[in-house]
Amino acid sequence: MLETRDLTIRFGGHVAVNAVSCSFASGTLTAIVGPNGAGKTTYFNLISGQLKASAGTVSLNGRDLSGQPPSARTRAGLGRAFQLTNLFPNLSVLENVRLAVQATQEGPHRRGLNLWSIWSDHQGLTARADAILAEVALKAREHDTVASLPHGDQRKLEVALLMALEPQVFMFDEPTAGMNAAEAPVILDLIRKLKQDKRKTILLVEHKMDVVRELADRIIVLHNGQLVADGEPAQVIASPIVQEAYLGVAKA
Amino acid sequence: MSRVLSHDLPRSRWLAVILVALLLGLAFAPFLFPGVKALNVAAKVVVFVVLVASFDLLLGYTGIVSFAHTMFFGIGAYGVAIASSRMGAGWEALAVGVGAALALSFVLSLAIGLFSLRVRAIFFAMITLAVASAFQTLASQLSSFTGGEDGLTFKMPELISPSFEFAEEPFLGASLDGRLLCYYLLFVLAVVLVLALLRIVNSPFGRVLQAIRENEFRAEAIGYRVVVYRTTAAVLSALFATLAGAMLAIWLRYNGPDTSLSFEIMVDILLIVVIGGMGTLYGAAIGATLFVVAQSYLQDLLRMANEAVTGVPWLAAVFTPDRWLLWLGLLFVLSVYHFPTGIVGRLRARALARR
Amino acid sequence: QPKEIRIAHVYGKTGALEAYGKQTQTGFMMGLDYATGGSMAVNGKKLVVIEKDDQGKPDLGKSLLATAYADDKADLAVGTTGSGVALAMLPVAEEYKKVLIVEPAVAASITGDKWNKYIFRTGRNSSQDAISNAVALDKDGTTIVTLAQDWAFGRDGVKAFKDAVKKAKIGHEEYLPPTTTDFTAGIQRIVDQLKDKPGRKVVWVVWAGATTPFNALADADLQKRFGIEVATGGNILPAMTAYKRFPGMEGATYYYFGLPKNPVNEALVAAHYKAFKAPPDFFTAGGFSAAMAVVTALKKTGGETNTNKLITAMEGMSFDTPKGTMTFRKEDHQAMQSMYHFRIKQDPAFAWGVPELVREIKPEEMAVPVRNKR
Amino acid sequence: MSNFDWKPLALVPVLALLALPLVGSPSTWLTLTVAGLAMGMIIFVIASGLTLVFGLMDVLNFGHGLFIALGAFVASSVLGLMGDWTGSQQLWRNLVAVFPAMLVAMAVAAAVGLAFERFIVRPVYGQHLKQILITMGGMIIGEEFIKMVWGPAQIPLPLPEALRGSLFVGEAAISKYRLLAVAVGLVVFVALAWTLARTKIGLLIRAGVQDREMVESLGYRIGRLFVGVFVAGSALAGLGGVMWGLFQQNLIPQMGAQVNVLIFIVIIIGGLGSTLGALIGALLVGLMVNYVGFVLPVATQFASIALMVAVLMWRPQGVYPVVKV
Amino acid sequence: MNLLELQGVHTHIGAYHILHGVDLVVPQGQVTMLLGRNGAGKSTTLRTIMGLWHASKGRVALAGQDITAAATPQIAALGVAYVPENMGIFADLTVKENMLLAARAAKRAEQMDAARLQWIFKMFPAVEKFWNHPAGKLSGGQKQMLAVARAIVEPRQLLIVDEPSKGLAPAIIDNMIDAFAELKAQGVTILLVEQNLNFAKRLGDTVAVMDNGCVVHAGSMADFAADTALQQSLLGLAI
Ligand SMILES: Nc1ncnc2c1ncn2[C@@H]1O[C@H](COP(=O)(O)OP(=O)(O)OP(=O)(O)O)[C@@H](O)[C@H]1O
Ligand SMILES: Nc1ncnc2c1ncn2[C@@H]1O[C@H](COP(=O)(O)OP(=O)(O)OP(=O)(O)O)[C@@H](O)[C@H]1O
Ligand SMILES: [Mg+2]
Ligand SMILES: [Mg+2]
């Protein structure tokens, strides 16, 4: 179980995430919605350690992770994908994934601190990376460098890296943004499949309400950094604050 | 074979041919190219291959731009120089010198590696530039220890000194003496060190370094503690540079601030990495050979060119050996123009295109 | 019997000391020409000069000298400009058992503890510089502060100077970083040391390199404000432009074309004016002297280039130079030579401050210590 | 500007005051402080071109020193032709000689800068490593050309008569030339700061460095702008060369390389792209060198480096970063 | 009348042949939607129009003028505003400075058209809210708003936007659709690449669909919207 307590960050005078306390049980997919700039990505950044909280704590299964650097949190089981694509642009698609697979390894080849074995000898890593690429339908381009991929494929790779980490908590930040209607289902199917594993916790930031409606077990709403609604999807979507501030229905 | 090269094969037929030629050329240099000058050039090539390869680990693989690399080169050379001149010629002196130098390099590179995390890339580069120049000043100021500007001249163990002759008659034009043994000592050392580096860059560790070079932020996010890898790379590269410095001192039996610490050498290293192709150790080897040979024979070449054009005064003024630096400068500019991805990059791209 | 005598001249043809090196080469060739009466041959053997550019780099100097001896079969060598390079070259001469005439590197240790029997030096050494300056300044009731660069060259010079000063008092030694560009602080320190001292007050400067403290010293107007004089040795002509602002300044120099009066110097000045329409400079004279030494020695051996014969011929050998007669003393092969006590005069005809001869300091007047171990 | 950050500006007086007890005598302190500030101004002038080229355009120009040397050598030729004017005791006649020298030096440096941008820098915008190499190459070539034109030897560049010597206030001395340098430095500072703050040029360059294509998509000819700024930077370096040459009164072809590290330090202390920062950096370096030179001369060579490291520990981007790295 | 015309455009990136003869027309005063799968070459087409990549064959014409070989600034100066796929935000510059750069007529911030700014602020509140903040600190959606705001800060005749709705909250998407409609009413011609089919249907007048570096369908939006079978075959829609 992932839990944040009074998680807060200030940028100068601006409070981007304001005392958000929330816990996420395994086996549920929680959608996080809210207007642009509500603090969704920032909230993810605080959980995964890219930003240091001004106050509050993050804990996973009761273990406090607040002081840890991002790498340690990832190893503890917090995995995330980024909203704006953030990959290793001049390495091949396969190597990108392989690096992520390697990062999860324990034992003698632990996280690449091994200076003396030969990388390509680790066949297991390659096989696993291949499997993941097949899952996101990127196998055909595995030897291309990431920089030459179209935008949509880069978004898929972003998700592939997250899958490779095999975390306990998956944080998706608008995984299908910029992906066309034919491709998005590949990713959504993946997420659906993940949902079936009851040990996993999934957090999903998404602006497409049809997707949210279909996938979410629970929705929380962030607005101006604050947690303003939390509950059943239907009920939350119907709430006035979502209708007005987010969907802009009142105006229309 | 493939294992010896850590499965990092040349991936281009031409590249393979060049590398083999290079290896054989260096292995038989004393017999193929007789003469003192040729042997000196070959030895310098050998030292520079190690030095540049060690720098490539830092620059090409990890993406850290540091101008302080000659500092470690200098430490290695001074280690041997100071120990040999204080303790007298001998293997113990060598061991002590190299050991002390490695220890000092370790500490300094650790500090620098950690500091590199505090400031961003270009600033770090400029700081190392300043630190390196300060270190050079320091080396010439501590003259009671380092011989100051004048440097130190010292002797090597008998076995690898020129005075040691193990056969009267020259063999294939090369005199069989300690100098020859010394050359082979360096050559074997260089081969071992380069293979070790090749192993390191092709290990899981090496791959993480490349990931950090590409996108440090993401490398951290997928679970690699960037500080650890970066610092380790900085330390390793410093240690290899230190060894290269020791090799230089062993060969020259002399060391001084200009010989191993000067900014000029740093720039040469940079140029070699770029000519050869960043992020490929093979590039370091080819680049080093090309550059050192060009640099050593540039003046001779110009002398010939100069004689050819003596009739045309202004041409002669440009082609005089005194203006060899002009041509070196041009070499800098042109190689950046024509080898954006280095020689290795070029060759590999050709091989790919052919496929 | 080979028909030619091969002489390698290693010098800083390019690099920071390019200007100095080229003067030496010019002087050397003029000297050979003069010494052989234009024939460029001794005993019918042609003199062949092999030029090597050490670029001011010790490691390169070393390898070039070895190349010259081994690959180019040089019989003897002359060089080089930088002291560091020269020091690195000394063991090579020993290794190949060939003579090396050092010119113009000044470091005392070349003929001191780093010396070996193949090394001769026609150039002055830093002791000679310092001692002659001491002779020029050493008076009762004088307080001297030295101002030097903080490196071996500076400290050597000051030490030799101090050893040679007998009557005057050395008030303070000021060392500044070799690359100093702003002398305000250094001058301030010197003034603080010197301003309240009784009697004659002198700052003696020993400084090599392009940026010298003289302009800063002149700007500070020490003479008028505190009665502090400035003194220094000689230098190349462009550097002596700064001396123009110190009329009456005294010191001792190695060479200035107007100072020595002898036929060799007259020949050098005439030849140099003819070739370049300018007077010969500091290092030209040195190169000329080295050539005179080479030819004199070869004449003595009858054109033989056998190293031992050369050494025997050269030890104690006297030879004519633009600075009068020099003698390689037996102990350390250092050429004993005259130095010139001068006083600066402003002369609008010259761009530099002109040194006028106060008196020639003869070799016998200078107790130049022997520092080598034989 | 209510939220102006005063702290770095305050660093200058703070450093001066801290030095007072260490130096001891107030008159010595005054001499050192005034000389240090004036020295800082000279350093600022030689570094000012680099605030444009390195600070704003993000070009690691190791050849910048070349323009400094070039400016100095050109000035020596121009002043050499005007012997009557420089030899005069009258200040105005001297200045009449110095100003054309500055103008010609700037013009020559600008012209060479134009070629340098075209052939050396243009292919490597945005690639630091290659910039270092190619500009080093350019620098070497340029230095050799200087040797071919003016000879390899050092050449004197005597100060015009009336600018020599010092003004004396009690025991404290201030050399006259430094006062001129302060004036020139202030003019350069105001001109630069005004242009960058009041026109879009500064913005465009910063934007162009981040995303050249986008700036072009907005309709600006970034190529021309970069040329212009590079040329301006070179001209400023030429001016700096005149000032530096007259200060040293002695020129060697390598003089450009010798100031390279110094000016990079100044720009880094100041923060990339900031004119004010560069000024503060230069003043701090000028003061620091003088104080340390007085209190502990051996440490002088390390003073500016230590200063830089200390500043970066405090502000990793320099004191007034305009361009963030 | 067609404002923009591409005839048989081929584009290479390095050794890769990306566009294989694109034919595309953008009628004056209308909204044209460019659709297609990931990697179909939509962004490449836009970049080729802007002169960021040059066509190796074929012809690009703007208002009858050949711009195939023209430089990007020249094309922009003809009155084309472009929002690239990666938004092209100058992260170190403040929002204000970003806007100022796009306002070519204004030398200083005060000289920007105040009324137009107010109009932009109303649609994209984040732009006003973060006016003096570095643009790099904006959230993903806020950056997207800034990118579009920047393209419309001054009137232009042709507006080209690569995926305008990406990452935007539904309310803001509505605003954006209103904005484009208003611009169209002012006579601006608009070319949009869009993945969001709803968005495309609501706004588009004509449509072109790309696949594999070619335009494989072109026609009116109304027809396309009605024909689900066509949509399915061209875009691979599951629904
Ligand atoms: N490093 C930062 N410095 C200053 N402000 C920041 C920083 N990061 C985020 N912010 C501000 O915090 C607020 C929340 O941003 P965040 O990226 O979390 O929004 P979001 O909910 O993910 O929006 P979107 O849906 O547009 O992606 C924004 O107003 C943004 O400007
Ligand atoms: N810099 C590049 N180098 C090599 N190939 C590239 C490069 N940029 C794009 N491509 C290739 O060009 C093709 C078309 O890419 P483009 O970005 O135009 O697609 P797109 O239709 O915009 O896709 P998306 O909807 O994902 O943005 C892709 O196959 C891509 O791999
Ligand atoms: Mg977000
Ligand atoms: Mg696209």
TrEMBL record, chain A:
Q: Which stretches are transmembrane?
A: none
This one is known as Branched-chain amino acid transport system ATP-binding protein
* PANTHER family in the cross-refs: ABC TRANSPORTER ATP-BINDING PROTEIN (PTHR45772:SF3), CONSERVED COMPONENT OF ABC TRANSPORTER FOR NATURAL AMINO ACIDS-RELATED (PTHR45772)
Any one Pfam family here would be BCA_ABC_TP_C
Check the record and name the InterPro entries matching this protein. Answer: AAA+_ATPase (IPR003593), ABC_AA/LPS_Transport (IPR051120), ABC_transporter-like_ATP-bd (IPR003439), BCA_ABC_TP_C (IPR032823), P-loop_NTPase (IPR027417)
Give one GO molecular function term. ATP binding
In the UniProt record, does the keyword ATP-binding occur?
A: yes
Cross-referenced Gene3D superfamilies: P-loop containing nucleotide triphosphate hydrolases
Which keywords does the record carry? ATP-binding, Cell membrane, Membrane, Nucleotide-binding, Transport
Q: Does the keyword Ubl conjugation apply?
A: no
**What GO cellular component term, any one, is given?**
plasma membrane
Q: Which organism is it from?
A: Pseudorhodoferax soli
Task: Report the superkingdom from the record.
Answer: Bacteria
Domain (ABC transporter) ranges:
2-249
UniProtKB/TrEMBL annotation, chain B:
The annotated topology with respect to the bilayer is: Multi-pass membrane protein
Q: Where in the cell is it found?
A: Cell membrane
Q: Which InterPro entries match?
A: ABC_transp_permease, LivM-like
| Keyword Repeat assigned | no
Which UniProt key words apply to this protein? Cell membrane, Membrane, Transmembrane, Transmembrane helix
Gene Ontology cellular component annotations, sorted alphabetically: plasma membrane
Q: What is the predominant subcellular site recorded for this chain?
A: membrane
Presence of the UniProt keyword Membrane in the record:
yes
Q: Which Pfam families does this UniProt record tie to the protein?
A: BPD_transp_2 (PF02653)
> What terms describe the molecular function in GO for this protein?
branched-chain amino acid transmembrane transporter activity
Q: Which CDD domains match?
A: TM_PBP1_LivM_like
**Which parts pass through the membrane?**
48-81, 93-115, 121-139, 181-201, 233-254, 266-294, 324-345
Q: Which PANTHER family does the record associate with it? A: ABC TRANSPORTER ATP-BINDING PROTEIN (PTHR30482:SF17), HIGH-AFFINITY BRANCHED-CHAIN AMINO ACID TRANSPORT SYSTEM PERMEASE (PTHR30482)
Question: What name appears for this protein in its UniProt entry?
Answer: Amino acid/amide ABC transporter membrane protein 2 (HAAT family)
- According to its UniProt entry, this protein's organism is Pseudorhodoferax soli
Automatic annotation (TrEMBL), chain D:
Q: What molecular function does GO assign, one term?
A: transmembrane transporter activity
Q: Where in the cell is it found?
A: Cell membrane
Q: Which UniProt keywords apply?
A: Amino-acid transport, Cell membrane, Membrane, Transmembrane, Transmembrane helix, Transport
GO biological processes: amino acid transport
Cell membrane listed as a keyword: yes
Q: Which CDD domains match?
A: TM_PBP1_LivH_like (cd06582)
Q: What is its main location?
A: membrane
Q: What Pfam families would the database entry show?
A: BPD_transp_2 (PF02653)
Query: How is this protein situated with respect to the membrane?
Result: Multi-pass membrane protein
Query: Which positions, given as ranges, span the membrane?
Result: 34-54, 66-83, 95-116, 177-197, 225-247, 259-285, 291-314
InterPro entries for this protein: ABC_transp_permease, BCAA_transport_permease
Q: Which GO terms describe its cellular component?
A: plasma membrane
Family per similarity comment: Belongs to the binding-protein-dependent transport system permease family. LivHM subfamily.
Task: From the Swiss-Prot or TrEMBL record, give the protein name.
Answer: Amino acid/amide ABC transporter membrane protein 1 (HAAT family)
From TrEMBL, chain E:
Keyword annotations from UniProtKB, A to Z: Amino-acid transport, ATP-binding, Cell membrane, Membrane, Nucleotide-binding, Transport
Looking up SMART domains in the UniProt record yields: AAA (SM00382)
Positions of the ABC transporter domain: 4-237
Q: Which GO terms describe its biological process?
A: L-amino acid transport
Q: Which InterPro entries match?
A: AAA+_ATPase, ABC_transporter-like_ATP-bd, ABC_transporter-like_CS, BCAA_Transport_ATP-bd_LivF, P-loop_NTPase
What is an example of a GO molecular function annotated in this UniProt entry?
Answer: branched-chain amino acid transmembrane transporter activity
PROSITE patterns membership:
ABC_TRANSPORTER_1, ABC_TRANSPORTER_2
Keyword Nucleotide-binding part of the UniProt annotation: yes
Whether Transcription counts among this entry's keywords is no
Q: Which family does it belong to?
A: Belongs to the ABC transporter superfamily.
Descriptive protein name: Amino acid/amide ABC transporter ATP-binding protein 2 (HAAT family)
